[in-house]
């Protein structure tokens, strides 16, 4: 296990929330698409995102940050394609360890 003394594990929660937003976008698009093949592909992407979460080691800061960025990038692309969305705001990652804030 990597040294987590200066690692804020809350960024894993940020990654999971980024994944949830991406999943929500896939479901939003699936529910608004009449083509069964496209709907199926979008729902399959939901399962894929959930599997990706499980593959990330929560103790590996670099892996968590990389996957968070991947989820955020994919969400931005999807939202830019639909045109009627509110501009996407990237969630910020904690920059300090919680213990440092106390």
Model description:
- The structure is a single chain.
- The protein is mainly alpha-helical.
- It has a domain of 71 residues.
- It has 4 helices and no strands.
- The longest helix has 22 residues.
- The two termini are 26 Å apart.
- The relative contact order is 0.19.
- The C terminus is likely disordered.
Q: What tags apply to this protein structure?
A:
about 100 residues, mainly alpha, about 65% helix, disordered C terminus
Topology:
Blueprint (H helix, E strand, L loop, with lengths): L9 H22 L4 H20 L5 H22 L15 H4 L1
- Helix residue percentage: 55-70%
The low-confidence parts are 86-91, 93-102
Secondary-structure element string: HHHH
Overall average pLDDT: 82
Q: Any idea what the shape is?
A: elongated
């Amino acid at each position: 296990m990597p040294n987590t003394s200066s690692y804020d594990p809350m960024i894993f929660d940020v990654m999971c929330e980024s994944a949830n937003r991406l999943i929500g976008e896939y479901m939003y698009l699936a529910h608004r698409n009449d083509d069964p093949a496209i709907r199926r592909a979008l729902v399959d992407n939901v399962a894929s995102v959930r599997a990706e979460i499980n593959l990330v080691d929560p103790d590996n800061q670099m892996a968590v940050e990389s996957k968070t960025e991947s989820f955020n990038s994919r969400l931005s692309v999807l939202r830019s394609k639909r045109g009627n969305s509110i501009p996407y705001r990237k969630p910020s990652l904690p920059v300090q360890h919680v213990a440092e804030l106390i």
